[in-house]
Amino acid sequence: MSPDTKSLTAKQPADHSARKFRELLALIIRLRSPDGCPWDRSRTKGDIGHYLIEEAYEVIEALEAGSPQDLKEELGDLLFQILFLTRMAEEAGEFDLDGVLDGIRDKMIRRHPHVFGDASVENVEEVRRNWEQIKKEEHPAEKPSGLLEGIPGGLSALARAQRVTGRASEVGFDWPDVAGVLRKLAEEIAEFEAALEARDPERMREEVGDLLFTVVNLSRFARADAEAALRISLGKFAERFAYIERKLAARGKNPADASLAEMDLLWDEAKQKGRPDKG
Question: What domains are there in the chain, each with its CATH number?
Answer without folding.
Answer: 16-95 (1.10.287.1080), 96-140 (no CATH), 157-224 (1.10.287.1080), 228-274 (no CATH)
